[in-house]
Amino acid sequence: MRDVAIIGIGQTPVGEHWELSLRDLGYRALRSALEDACVEAPQMLFVGNMLSGALSHQENLGALIGDYAGHRGIESFKVEAACASGAAAVRMASLAVGGGACDVAVALGVEKMTDGRGDEATAALAMAADADYESSQGLSFVAINALLMQRYMHEFGYRHVDFAPFAVTAHLNASTNANAMFRSRITAEQFEASRPVASPINLLDASGICDGAAAVVIVPADLARSTSPYPLVRIAASSSAIDSVALHDRRDPLVLQAAADSAWRAYSHAGIGPEDIDFFELHDAFTIMAALSLEACGLAPHGRGVALANEGVLGRQGRIPISTLGGLKARGHPVGATGVYQIVETVQQLRGAAGENQIPGARFGLAQNIGGSGANVITHILERAS
Amino acid sequence: MRDVAIIGIGQTPVGEHWELSLRDLGYRALRSALEDACVEAPQMLFVGNMLSGALSHQENLGALIGDYAGHRGIESFKVEAACASGAAAVRMASLAVGGGACDVAVALGVEKMTDGRGDEATAALAMAADADYESSQGLSFVAINALLMQRYMHEFGYRHVDFAPFAVTAHLNASTNANAMFRSRITAEQFEASRPVASPINLLDASGICDGAAAVVIVPADLARSTSPYPLVRIAASSSAIDSVALHDRRDPLVLQAAADSAWRAYSHAGIGPEDIDFFELHDAFTIMAALSLEACGLAPHGRGVALANEGVLGRQGRIPISTLGGLKARGHPVGATGVYQIVETVQQLRGAAGENQIPGARFGLAQNIGGSGANVITHILERAS
């Protein structure tokens, strides 16, 4: 397959966009990525989205947004992998260009969660879990993560406050990202004192309900080299794996096997190891997921993800910076868009365009997007090529 | 890109499968396709589905069905393009194998429409239309097709009964297909006398609410040649295009531009023309769609699709056999699965395994799957290679 690169990025601020429809949001990110890439139109458009059917009564987003953006006649599909839909779209666009089906593909992630009334968003998010064996028992998606966190604390002897560094770091990083939703810094005390959502998950363990869209333009690396004014950012690896959707079907619920499978395949494709990663855009939808993701990717031993966080290495000056522009926790988690935000931010870092949030001299960025409680996981490694 | 072929096909009967869940249906078709191909597991699985969120409160189908079938660790995503989701999955699988991302991909289409209560399925199907500008005005999906049919009749001077040959042919062909839902033959008189759904669409113009799943195994053609006992069926062309979702945004609503775009690209890729097609699995969700699809694919001039049907050329002995195993009208239209059923049936024909429904000596089969009222259209040309 051909080597591929990202030559354009676009995003809307994450927030509550009451004045914008799903298609408006998608259009803005798409337009902005195409402009950044100096490209008129994509040949293929992959739209990552999870909730448009449930919350906006709209499917067929490939045609809807492709047409709204003025691109009739192109190929376009919606790709869904629950909260990993965004990275799934990136994976598809990367496949399409890498495999030679086209030269210019766009991966767009878009989600409009505020279209839901009352607790419709909570009910819709439960579709990421197993409807027949989990949701039907009354388990919401946050409750499933609470079970995981409770077990993790029990198994490895952590207190709730030990998870604070994930949220504190994310909020600190978001405070200097104009596109982030929650830009206030928080302390470990505020984290601990925030109200419970589903014990032991407190409000500040969890990402919020929000709207947003992000897009990337993917082309063959050779084309990028000859046309793009930016430092070349290539997709060194793109990999995914599935596990059972229901927690109870896993050998060990505290091991994100699909995250490990996809991460280690990605390392192998990129020819590097965890020690080579300069920063990690991880899936901190809940603090427990951040810990498990660090472990699955070989950045902390089993059961030591939280201990690592407390060593102070996750900040921008640390050994393994995470959520460098705020992560799911504080930049925000518009679910089907999140995986594309992660890639956009990884490109910002590798271009040296992350402003106050810049990780100096970063060469390899790792981004991992998790669908469900670990059911479908997509890992990308991006590299600033010299 | 590499030449690809289909070495395994599987399907469940189309019907009301009250005793089977979404994952059961998907599993059965997937298992049966893998057995047909003598393959243990796919490396990538693309699941075409439109309505699982709305009707079964379940997303994340890639992981759900992949895991249920025993394939943890593989890559799997859901692909959505409204009623063209099935062919979109085939397109993705074809891209993945053709581009060299993997050697064995499965496209699975699955839909469980009977999970909906009351008119939930009708409301869910409206998600294929434009929620902000069509559905919000109270237009159901059948009403949109009724507008098209009314305009077509007005513009070209047809009576309702002139559309009968589409439904009569489909039911006749379904009568000898054990997997078809509606196996009773009908007459033009019965067609004309059937009760109105949304005038001028009568019950026998329209496909019904149903459940079903179908799957195909796609591998490089070289691998197929050396391992498969079946006549080689290659994907000579796989192409798609989008148009506006809303009818009122089209230059001429009676021209399915995306269908024409994708068909003519497909002819060009395959190096053939409409005159080389031996049979056509078209998207007869409504009789008007069958007429417009024939016209878009160059098999009838503009406004002459219905006239062609009345020349008696669409039957199995005719010049352009359509819906050879019953089509959407009579085999059934489990929406997200339909595009894969079309491909499965095309393979049956090209293998010479269509039994009483066999088109003798068929070499080129055309299959066209339409999402929305023409918004996203995927065309495949399959060829029995010598």
Output the keywords.
386 residues; 5-stranded mixed β-sheet; homodimer; globular; Peroxisomal Thiolase, Chain A, domain 1
What does this structure look like?
Two copies of one chain form a homodimer. Chain A has 386 residues and is of the alpha/beta class. Chain A has two domains: 4-118 and 209-227, Thiolase/Chalcone synthase (Peroxisomal Thiolase, Chain A, domain 1); 125-208 and 236-384, 3-Layer(aba) Sandwich (Peroxisomal Thiolase, Chain A, domain 1). In chain A, 36% of the residues lie in helices and 19% in strands. Chain A is built from 14 helices and eleven strands. The first copy, chain A, has helices at 22-37, 52-56, 61-68, 85-98, 120-125, 141-156, 164-174, 188-193, 221-227, 257-270, 287-296, 305-309, 327-331, 335-351, and strands at 4-11, 44-48, 75-80, 105-112, 196-198, 201-202, 211-220, 233-242, 279-281, 364-371, 376-384. The first copy, chain A, has a five-stranded mixed beta sheet with strand order 1-7-4-2-3, sandwiched between helices. In chain A, strands 8-11-10-9 form a four-stranded mixed beta sheet, with helices on both faces. Chain A has a two-stranded antiparallel ribbon with strand order 5-6. In chain A, strand 10 and strand 11 (376-384) form a beta hairpin. In chain A, helix 4 (85-98) packs across helix 14 (335-351). The first copy, chain A, is globular. The mean pLDDT of chain A is 97. Strand 3 of chain A pairs antiparallel with strand 3 of chain B.
